[in-house]
């Protein structure tokens, strides 16, 4: 019986053949289509659009406007970070930085900034799909 407090001694061996690596589709920086995933841009536009009514309702009070701006900042930042980390496969620091930046963009009150920046990031992907000049 093994004692769990003692380390298990073993040997790490390199596989004899590397054929299993041929099935892996390599995804690197050259295969990327833009700085952020199109889904991140769409989430930014959608959240910016859907928070228009709460922004307008909170306009008379500064605290309410700050609360709605902070709420959309957090919501969009988390959504974009998760998309960048799990879908786009960015490293954690890059995904958090992009989520933070897009959260600030969406957190600006009223739907102008998030829509413009999200549309600017989404436009090359849409153009590539419509014109068929992509992969």
What series of H and E elements makes up the topology? HHHHH
- What is the number of domains? 1
How many helical stretches?
A: 5
Helix content: 55-70%
User: How would a textbook summarize the main sheet?
Assistant: none
Cα distance, first to last residue? 56 Å
Query: Shape, please?
Result: flat
Q: In total, how many beta strands?
A: 0
Secondary-structure-derived class:
mainly alpha
- Average pLDDT, to the nearest integer? 83
The radius of gyration is 22 Å
Tell me the β content: under 5%
Low-confidence stretches: none
Your description of this structure?
The chain has 135 residues and is mainly α. It has one domain. 60% of the residues lie in helices and 0% in strands. The protein is built from five helices and no strands. The protein has helices at residues 38-50, 52-57, 62-87, 92-107, 112-131. Helix 3 (62-87) packs antiparallel against helix 4. The termini are far apart. The model has no long low-confidence stretch (mean pLDDT 83).
């Amino acid at each position: 019986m093994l004692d769990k407090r003692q380390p298990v001694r073993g040997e790490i061996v390199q596989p004899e053949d590397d054929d299993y690596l041929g099935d892996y589709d390599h995804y690197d920086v050259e295969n990327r289509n833009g700085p952020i995933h199109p889904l991140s841009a769409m989430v930014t536009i959608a959240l910016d659009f859907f928070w228009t009514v709460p922004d307008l309702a909170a306009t008379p009070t500064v605290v309410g406007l700050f609360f709605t701006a902070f709420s959309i900042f957090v919501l969009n930042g988390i959504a974009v970070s998760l998309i960048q980390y799990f879908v786009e496969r960015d490293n954690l620091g890059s995904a958090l930085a992009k989520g933070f930046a897009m959260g600030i963009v969406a957190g600006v009150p009223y739907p102008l900034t998030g829509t413009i920046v999200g549309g600017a990031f989404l436009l090359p992907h849409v153009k590539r799909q419509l014109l068929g000049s992509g992969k």
